[in-house]
Amino acid sequence: MNNQTTRISGRPATLADLDLFKHVEEHLYTAVVSDSLDELGYRNQALREFMRPLSPNDCFAGWARTFSCVDMYHIPTEPYAMEIAALDSVLLGEVVIASTAGSMQNAPWGELLSTAAHVRGARGAVIDGLVRDVRKIQELGFPVFARGIKPVDSKGRGAIIDYNVPIECAGARVCPGDLIFADYDGVIAVPAEILPQVIQLATEKVAKENGSRAELLRGAYLKDVFAKYGVL
Prior knowledge:
By secondary structure, the chain is α/β, with parallel strands linked by helices. It has one domain (15-192): Ribonuclease E inhibitor RraA/RraA-like (Glucose Oxidase, domain 1, 3-Layer(bba) Sandwich). 34% of the residues lie in helices and 24% in strands. The chain has 7 helices and 10 strands. The chain has helices at residues 15-27, 30-39, 81-88, 111-119, 134-140, 195-217, 222-229; strands spanning 52-53, 60-71, 94-99, 124-131, 144-149, 158-163, 167-169, 172-174, 179-183, 186-190. The strands form 2 sheets. Strands 1, 2, 3, 4, 5, 6, 9 and 10 form an 8-stranded mixed beta sheet that branches. A two-stranded antiparallel sheet has the order 7-8. Helix 2 (30-39) packs across helix 6 (195-217) and helix 6 (195-217) runs antiparallel to helix 7 (222-229). The longest helix is centred in the C-terminal third of the chain and has 23 residues, at 195-217. The radius of gyration is 19 Å and the shape is elongated. Mean pLDDT is 94; it is low at 1-8.
């Protein structure tokens, strides 16, 4: 695993990127990544607590492909034009992460968008809003985090107005190319400029936690274990 992997905007994931994603998914977890961000002074990179997986085993890491959505109250001539362009822009190794400004008016994500993203090599989707076609998405095996579920279409209720731009998603600022990591505890956005340091710190902390856990299971007192490893 190459800790120096950095994002080059506008190109599909490389083998080094895929190795990084595998390392994050298999050896790290969002809590320890959040702790590492805290240590570096980035204390607002965890998305809000209402962002939950459609399936309990959903877990993914990948580069952010941002979508910016807004509410609307009329049906435009081409209601899906920007949505189609945004989906067709998704590259191998990316995570679709969509801001809706907290809207609960429509479900901008469903089965067909999941299918399109999945086939293009997306790692998953994070929707700060509602989704639909959940059974079909689960059957597809495409991991999605969202605020909730509602069966209504976005047509005439909301639209994508831009993509691959900085957004605020569920309380966290996300830029294209940031690392998005999601597991059952929630979703973390790691700014690209500090990614190597975060991965290094998180990997080191996991090793310390493994040592702490082993000694606690053998009956050691927490105060002694904490004095030795310095993690909780």
